[in-house]
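sanity check this record:

:::
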Amino acid sequence: MNILIKYGKIHGTVSVPSSKSITHRAIMIASIAYGKSVIKNRLKSVDTDFTVKACKELGVGIDEQGNQLIINGVNGKFILNGKTKNLYVGESGTTLRFLTAISILTDGTVIIDGEKKLRERPIGGLIHVLLEQGILVKSIMNNDCPPVAVKGGFITGGKISVSSDKSSQFASALLLIAPFAKNDVVLEPINLKSSPYLRLTWSLMKDFGIMGEFDNQVYKIKTGTGYKAREMTIEGDWTSASYFMVAAAVTGGKVKLLNMNPESIQGDRKIISILSKMGCEIKIKSDGLEVSGRNLKSIEEDLGDNPDIVPSLCIAAAFASGKSKFTNIGHLIYKESNRLESVCLELNKMGIDAYYDSSQIVISGGKPNGSVIDPHNDHRIAMSFSVAGLAAEGETTINNADVVNKSYPDFYNDLKILGAKII
């Protein structure tokens, strides 16, 4: 599906979809918990559907009732009766990494595979730690990427160090299974990027009854406590909110966002302070978040903990006066696309000077022109450049626009609610 976007200011109110990160984690934890959990307001998207499907195939009872899930947890044990289960997870990196870890809770073998692009995403850091912990696991192609084969067992526990420079999900995956270790676990991520996502995992584990401590990026987990079922409602996604916030910023429009928690521990809430520094007027109200666009100023910001809002903030920078720089973001090359390269290629098409090196991206703001955008099969590139198209001179075409279904199937419908001219 290709779409055409015309210049136009946006205005109105939209309800932001639920957090993708929290939805993945809640489904995984509820699946291995004791008892029946009720997950309300879950995100339904291609990626989260793969997580639901995989857990079902491992024997978890999941009743899907619209945006609500009723999950009957397996209390830390998937029953495969010694058999091998093949699981397909599409292009969902989160599903891949978390599933690799919780698959040790089977009495058989699990093989996890996905699309061609997923087979390029690294998982060696997690595999190597699981091997050190006594688990039989391997990259079938011997390249530290999927497909991955995991034989059930129990990790030893004790002190665990995990390299986290490519993804915090390796550490999150190990945290998820730490309560089932033979001994108490002390988990220490090394060269941690995207630390708020790891804290998010920890917060949900505590909500589901896990005992432990967190201090100075070291996590101490008591073994034997186990997860206990609960009822929860998932809050709005700050990464998804970023597209509408930037849309208001670059078009000079005004939007009100519902379903947002201003006290959220989601790291991408940081976009409030960043856009405020760039000149936007942002008001937090009792019923939502109100964003009004103004003339944008350039900014320099360390986004090592906030990789998912880098593409949308690069669009803001493209329309700002002066040169912006976002640093500590070398790990973006391991996403659905090499996002540093993708952003620069597409901004260059729009007439904006942008370049990157191993750890940063630099953008000289100006007046982007409409262009034909290749999203590089990356949902966040597609959504970010759709926002650019709203304020670019002329018309912008987004090729393969349905890639947004990975995380936000209603994205273009919601843009239209705000008055976007989309054909």
The radius of gyration is 21 Å. The chain has a mean pLDDT of 97.
